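S., here's the first fold you wanted:
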Amino acid sequence: MQRSKRSIDYQYVPRPIAVLADEYPSGFHDPKHRHVRAQLVYAISGVTILSTQDASYVAPPQRAIWIPPGVEHEVRCRGCVQIRTLYIAPDAAPDLPQSCQVFEVSNLLRELILAATEMPVEYALEGRDARVMALILDEIRLARRIPLHVPMPINQRLARICQTILADPAQHDVLDAWASAAAMGRRTFTRTFRRETGMSFATWRQQVRLMDALSRIATGHSVTSAALDVGYNSPSAFAAVFRRTFGVSPTHYVISEPVADPPAD
């Protein structure tokens, strides 16, 4: 089989893992779809934004998104995205996560993915190529999950509010205004939001701002412009919240090599 740019061509390859390499321009949008196989979506450059009915996920460079088989999703790209997608047969790794995840890509996993891209699509089922693919699955199991997602509420009125904020995180409307827009009282709004997302509205909105700012920095924006663009009053306020959440500074987090542990102060 020759390599293809079409994901459908990799769903029934008679191998546990099939690898697609592609590039997408900034602003690219892949509408809602689903796959028979699980996916590991790894961005070498640019930012991948994935949305499902349940949550929204962001993967800056050197991070990856895991998508279980059959999960409907859509993808948007910020910046020019060089992507490597692994399509993994359901029976190849039944113990891998059953929900979408964002995680760090270790140096070893990165090199294994790049090596897999150079293999024949129908690689030998014994020998070096098969061992590389098996090791990829081991590294995915060990990968460190990171909090680069926000859950989405089921309530359609709350979901519309969330979509509005995702499209423009800098909005400064107060809680009462959002409750009014959802045609709810303040207490009903806050209780329903926490019940359906597992977090307060304020925490949810802060997480959206962090994710959006991170994606901007990863595509070349300065920390100052990213912080102000998503609604922070100052870069220092943004940096303080970012460090509390991720354990490192924004600029340290988006360096090309994944961060294993926070640096010592």
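And the second, which I think is the more interesting of the pair:
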Amino acid sequence: MNVLRRNNVRVVGSGGRAMVFAHGFGCDQNMWRFVWPAFAEEYRIVLFDHVGCGGSDLRAYDIGKYASLEGYADDVVAICRELDLTHSIFVGHSVSAMIGAIASIQGPELFDELIMIGPSPRYIDDDDYTGGFSEAQVYELLEFLDDNHMGWSQAMAPVIMGNPDRPELGQELANSFCMTDPEIAKRFARVTFLSDNRADLDRVTARALVLQCHEDVIAPPAVGAYVHQRVSNSAFVLLNATGHCPNLSAPDETVLAMKIFLAGERSTAQNVGP
């Protein structure tokens, strides 16, 4: 199956370098609609859906392949090679931040920069590591999803999105969750929340930006700081935005932080925003 059809790849613009956008769990490329246009004049924008999400070909979903984040990273590498991309910029939200990190290790020539929005290499607390969840909490979350996909989506989306004063954002995320095939969503959630990719961070050689919201129930600030500490050539930006999806809730602040990083104007921990 052609990888571009399989992953519903869309290419916009004709800049000299490519910027590849990867969405998070239960979402699709539409979640970038407030961000990518700010870069379309300068970069070749590549949007896609992970297999099992959005407009991807569900027939391509393979339980064995997608039992780890490496299977999703393989697809990112395949997309880039099909489009003949090198020295590109990868922008990954949530679990896709780690998928991009793995892809950059698999194909070091593919990405010169990684922009990691709300990344987490491990969601479960472990010894002196703070992931944000106890093991019991993660399994309770997964059992809730197994038992009631629709109920989980409606209950969890507003919590993940944050910004309770803007309920339409939480509803959009809930709608996106509900549109995902329930069985695939359950498997992807298990792969996401039970993953441990901390060791991969030390192997990332691309220059990286870690974008972290100052209130995020999925990836608290301590997680972003940990990623920054472990990725040798990285910058850490603590946004004023709240929730786990600043690409939707605070796109202007997100775009500003990205542009500053890509311009090479800052390379240390900082705050961006009003």
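Why I say that: The first helix runs from residue 3 to 6. The mean pLDDT is 93.

Talk tomorrow,
H.
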